[in-house]
Amino acid sequence: MTARTSRSVRIREDLAAVGVMLADLTRRGLAHVGAIIARAYRFCESWLLDSKKALYGLAVTRILLGVAAIGLLLANAGTRLYAFGSGSLWNGESLEAKSAFPQIWLFSSFHHAMSNDLLYTALYVLLLALAVAFTLGWRFKLVLPVFWVLWVSFIEANDMLGDQGDNMFRIVVFLLIFADPAARWSFDARRRAVRPRTRSADREQIGNLFHNLTLVVLTAQVSFVYVSGALYKAGGTPWSGGYAVYNPLQTDQFGTWPWLSDLATAWGPAVALATWGSILVQLAFPFLLLTRRTRIFGLAAILSFHIAIAVLMGLPWFSLAMIAVDAIFVPDGTWRGMTTGLRSAFADARRKVTDAEPAAPEEADSPETSAPTRRSRR
Amino acid sequence: MTSQPLSRRRSPLVRAVLVVASVVAAWHIFASFLWIAPPSPLREVVPAGALKGYMLPLFGQSWSVFAPEPINGSYTLEVRAIVEEDGADPAETEWVDATAAEVSMAQYNLFPPRAAFAGTGVASALKSGFDDLTDDHRVIAGLNYFEADWENRMAEKMKTYGKPELVDAYLPREHMATAYATQVALAVWGDDVVRVQYRVTRQNVVPFASRNDPDATPPSPQVVETGWRGLVRNPGQSDAAFRDVFLPAYERTADK
Question: Is A148:A189 a contact under the CB 8 Å cutoff?
């Protein structure tokens, strides 16, 4: 009798203990989850507000986008009237614009100038000058919006000759309005180094916020583009069959180096690797970014993919615009390391040159000065 | 972590902007995702017009490039003309390959100008419009129309065979192709051109499996040939600006 009651008491106590333990665990678990969430929130808040991220990467984005714009303008300079101006009006664009942009007043300058050779050329030269200022990061806050508006007016005035690179360029340059791509490697950065800006803590944090959110949005933009590109392709027989890259390379428009196209597609296994490889790399791109080693592989792979498109398919500016955006995924430390490495390599080479010429008296006096001294940009 | 003292420094203004800007960015990312990804039932979570209204025109883009089937053919647009030199009988010229002249500007060029594929664009637009027409419409398109007001007369005639929406989609392309062919003809044969005709060909590539076979014959070309047309010039068109680029390119390819 007593044995049974003592056992039932023990069972009851055990059950109560389990209940208490569960309650404890739940409370501690919740506190833990709460702490994790709080820490994650603080991390995100601090990441967004306390400093601008990827300043060098975004400066490279600015420079490469600018180079793409300059390159496109120069490559088309001799045929500008034929392709976009008074020689092209057979396309009906001047009667009724095909894209939505020229129908908006803000983006209509090139559209209205199509039939006037002098005016068109003047706008073309102005756009080129703005592209140079954009690349150099000169008065960037002012130049960027003007350049963007004029660029969109230019590129959208002839819808038929456009490609998806134009959309990427328009979207990315627009997003750059909210960021600070001229904070490094630019004329503005030089000016800021001489006369530092004084800003209230609020303004500083809001500026950081916009800059960093832009990076997030850009990351999403390129990731979606690559992944959806892969999803669209995966459904096609030539892609799953491993020979899709052959077809466009054999056309006039996307095989601008016919003998190179033949060479590149002669060996079947290489065609299959290139075909499947481009789908896989596009699909995996955002995930490859997650760790350092896979990021290096992913960026190298996507860079080769774009260089192949640039050369073999005759789409250099589209490719350069895509590469430009990928530059934000290279950490600032790496960009700085690259420039330090380049500078010391140049200094070494410079020293070798001066050592080889003992006759030059100026250098012989003070060989140390041959190392370039530069103002710090931090 | 230094976030504790920093977070105490955040003013209500910064926190408010943080919330609003993050929400806007999140919406933009979500909208971009829905727009860029292949259309899926996930789009139903956003009210029908909202996505399009937000994305167009500023964020307009489409990434089904070279997918699901990449382009596997080249377009050719050839032009010939009737030339009436004063006093002489009207003479019919040989066919001239306008696309070949333009494409020569891009071949073996690391930085091809966009001008290289204007004719390709015309050919592709014309052929897809023509392919959409019914057989009856195509017969009409094959007839000669060159006397005054020919475009309206051709439109009326085509529409008597029904499906006017197809005709309306096709006619602007026919107009553009004729205006382009007019420029080509004026550049090559000068101002005595009175009529033009063009022929659009789509030539698909040698199938992958036979790519290394030197005797492989390309698939038979698809040809669209319409009738003779009166000249078409849009207002403001400069014949000289067209000729200055086209003629040297044409002469380069014609010499080969």
Answer: no
